[in-house]
């Protein structure tokens, strides 16, 4: 393939969603088709879509599936990317610099050589091997295809009872989606509280608020099987103690890095099963192989250790950085501080940095404070209550983490803490932050500053 | 006064609003009445109120004046503060460590000695000496008394036309208030665009949006006189070119530090007429005199020079810091980055850091970028457009300033830039910030990050 142009290289991309196609697009911006051939493989029907938007499509806030698609295969092809849809890479031959791909329709297989490789295979949802888990009416919500299948089920049945298994981001967002479609929703959750990405005392607030929205919250409950009716469809979800009738079941248990190909190829994986990269998103020890998105582990800047975080915003950044480096530019991904925001109806949930157990695991001693404040000046209409929990390192007072549960205006306040964590600020430095103040937007002391002031006192006392 | 307890000191506070009473309260927390006597003088009728809330009280969103009062004189007295209301300090004798105060009702005068003095005399509104400026129907909105007088006028007249003079924060907020009361509002503004705290290209967006709300915007217009009718009341505002009929006129031209007492006492004032303090809020060269709130100048951390910013959030911080230091603790106010947020109906306006002209004045060379984005994922209902302008230093890429004009969810995004400015981040560092992402809260690239990415390219090109 390089016969016509001896310096022309071939970039192969495995995975056609955020990380893979961002990498391909950015590489294409920097290097034209005469310099760089780009071949991308995607096993599904769609490219560059917002998986994070699926709950809102299912819930009806987003009308059409195609609104979630940022760029179609045709648009990518128009930019000079040789995109092979419904084609799954089944083997990476690192020594031979080639990948083996299978066309899902027809089964034909062939090898494609590469000069540079980007692995963006994403994540796969956890799907426990329970009796009945594959019954009609049980749905994951990882891909657009999954979302379409769930919507088809919701439209075809006149059931009114839904069980969501799992109470992390996907679980709580799907609970909202099903509430919005008029279902009676039960959330069955293995943990003591929903949102295990929060400390239990903050998760407890989420439990209360979700229960207040009419959602039946079942905590500390492990699903043991999915019960089916005479028609073979799901009819209930069983735990050790109880059965929860269900016309539809949504699995939102979490995801793991999809790295089976990488593992078989002998590429380095971390403790969470994700690919390990350097700061330029190069797979460690492999000069011409990059990886990004939900299949990699990322450096947590607060704890200094690797984590796996499946989030579209990281995947887009990774793709951008990989594409720059593949294209001859220079960019790095320094790491994350673990920011995440979510909502269930009017409830807003946010976190960044370390939970108490993360801090302990990292060998950090810390103080915690929790404060109540409001989103606007107390006298201004619509001022909504908000609880802010803050962790600071003992003695040094360095900010370690923030969690917020509240109503409108709560979630994005966590960004202030995300920047402060990145900058390594102490809570005392934070008390002087010049944050925007006007009565429609904040009390005279922003809730984050109220927490920081209390944290300063706790650091001094501790 | 120290006869009964030779170590007991007396703290005198001039001014009973945010800075003064925060200082008094914090000092009281640290030192009981047997150690520290606190005497505070306030010439008005109210203490510790939110002047920033006056537009919302006038506009009807806040029902009662008392909702704006955080702490009444009685509450302060119950905490052991000897509060003298309606008593104006008319002289500071620094050498003699005493102040002369006059009771406004009766006129009695007396000297009070101090060991420590806090000057928190606030700001006074600019009120040009124009013909007719004192006519009935012309109102400032600096104090609760001003707000009450304006409300009395609005209730007593059945006029429907209002002219607001000035298009800064107070002007635009009063325009909203009067719109909310059903007035036809004209804003007469000396500058080329409203909101001179923004660059003109961003002010232009505010002009368009306010005009779109039905507000008549008159820019580049200097008021020459206030015209009165046969009854002596205001009937119009005149500029060189035109007359604008008015049943009520609101002055929102800005404020200056109220430092006439300090000046007469020989205390150091800066170029903007505000008191100059050290980082502990001590008046420079005066061991036992502190000053804070709207009567001081503050260090701008981005330009390295002093500014005058009248804002409740700074006044509260100053008071807290002064009270800590007076009380034997230790706290400092490192400075500001110039963050401000405001709204006019649905329009949100925010800024932090330097405008182009501030950067030039500071001797900085810079690049600017402006981007359009949305408050939420584009497909999510309620996604509102937002324009973000970013300034970065040439070559180094250090963030210098951000301005945002948009709708719901626009203003408080400026806080991310405020923290980044405080931390001295470059725009390239900002592109990696781990900001909260979920479709109801942000596009996958937060608007601030979109601006940062474009600024990186501009720095490289520049």
Q: What's the helix count of chain A?
A: 12
User: Over all CA atoms, what is the radius of gyration of chain A?
Assistant: 24 Å
For the record, the count of structural domains of chain A works out to 3
What is the CATH architecture term of the largest domain in chain A?
Answer: 3-Layer(bba) Sandwich
CATH class of the largest domain in chain A: Alpha Beta
pLDDT below 50 for ≥5 consecutive residues: which ranges of chain A?
none
The backbone outline of chain A, from C-alpha atoms, is: globular
Fraction of helical residues of chain A:
25-40%
Give the mean pLDDT of chain A.
96
Walk me through what this model shows.
The structure is a homodimer of 462-residue chains. By secondary structure, chain A is an alpha/beta fold. Chain A contains twelve helices and 25 strands. In chain A, the strands form seven sheets. The first copy, chain A, has a five-stranded parallel sheet with strand order 3-2-1-7-18. In chain A, a hairpin with a 5-residue loop joins strand 13 and strand 14 (234-239). In chain A, helix 1 runs parallel beside helix 8 (312-326). The radius of gyration of chain A is 24 Å and the shape is globular. The termini of chain A are far apart. At the A-B interface, helix 8, strand 21 and helix 10 of A face helix 8, strand 21 and helix 10 of B.
């Amino acid at each position: 393939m390089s016969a016509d142009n001896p310096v022309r290289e071939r970039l192969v991309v495995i995975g056609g969603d955020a990380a893979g196609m961002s990498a391909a697009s950015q590489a294409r911006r920097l290097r034209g088709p005469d310099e760089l051939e780009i071949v991308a493989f995607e096993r599904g029907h769609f490219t560059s879509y917002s998986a994070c938007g699926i709950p809102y499509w299912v819930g009806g806030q987003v009308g059409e599936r195609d609104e979630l698609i940022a760029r179609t295969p045709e648009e990518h092809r128009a930019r000079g990317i040789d995109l092979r849809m419904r084609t799954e890479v089944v083997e990476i031959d690192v020594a031979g610099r080639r990948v083996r791909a299978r066309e899902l329709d027809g089964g034909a297989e062939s090898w494609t050589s590469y000069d540079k490789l980007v692995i963006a295979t994403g994540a796969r949802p956890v799907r426990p091997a329970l009796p009945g888990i594959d019954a009609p009416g049980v749905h994951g919500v990882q891909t657009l295809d999954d979302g379409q299948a769930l919507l088809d089920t919701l439209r075809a049945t006149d059931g009114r009872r839904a069980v969501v298994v799992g109470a992390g981001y996907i679980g709580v967002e799907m609970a909202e989606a099903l509430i919005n479609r008029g279902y009676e929703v039960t959330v069955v959750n293995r943990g003591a509280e929903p949102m295990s990405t929060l400390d239990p005392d903050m998760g407890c607030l989420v439990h209360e608020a979700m229960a207040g929205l009419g959602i039946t919250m079942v905590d500390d409950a492990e699903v043991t099987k999915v019960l089916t009716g005479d028609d073979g469809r799901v009819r209930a979800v069983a735990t050790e103690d109880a059965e929860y009738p269900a016309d539809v079941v949504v699995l939102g248990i979490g995801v793991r890095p999809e790295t089976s190909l990488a593992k078989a190829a002998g590429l380095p994986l971390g403790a969470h099963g994700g690919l390990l990269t350097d700061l330029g998103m190069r797979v460690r020890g492999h000069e011409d192989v990059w990886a990004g998105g939900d299949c990699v582990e990322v450096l947590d800047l607060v704890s200094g250790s690797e984590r796996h975080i499946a989030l579209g915003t990281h995947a887009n950044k990774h793709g951008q950085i990989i594409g720059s480096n593949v294209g001859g530019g220079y960019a790095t991904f320094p790491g994350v501080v673990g920011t995440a925001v979510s909502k269930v109806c009017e409830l807003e949930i946010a976190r960044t940095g370390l939970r108490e157990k993360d801090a302990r695991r990292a060998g950090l001693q810390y103080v915690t404070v929790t404060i109540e404040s409001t989103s606007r000046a107390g006298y201004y209409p619509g001022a909504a209550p908000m609880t802010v929990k803050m962790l600071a390192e003992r003695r040094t007072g360095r900010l370690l983490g923030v969690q917020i549960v509240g109503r409108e205006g709560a979630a994005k306040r966590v960004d202030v803490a995300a920047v402060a964590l990145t900058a390594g600020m102490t809570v005392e430095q934070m008390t002087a932050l010049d944050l925007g103040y006007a009565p429609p937007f904040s009390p005279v002391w922003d809730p984050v500053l109220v927490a920081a002031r209390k944290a300063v006192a706790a650091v001094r006392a501790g």
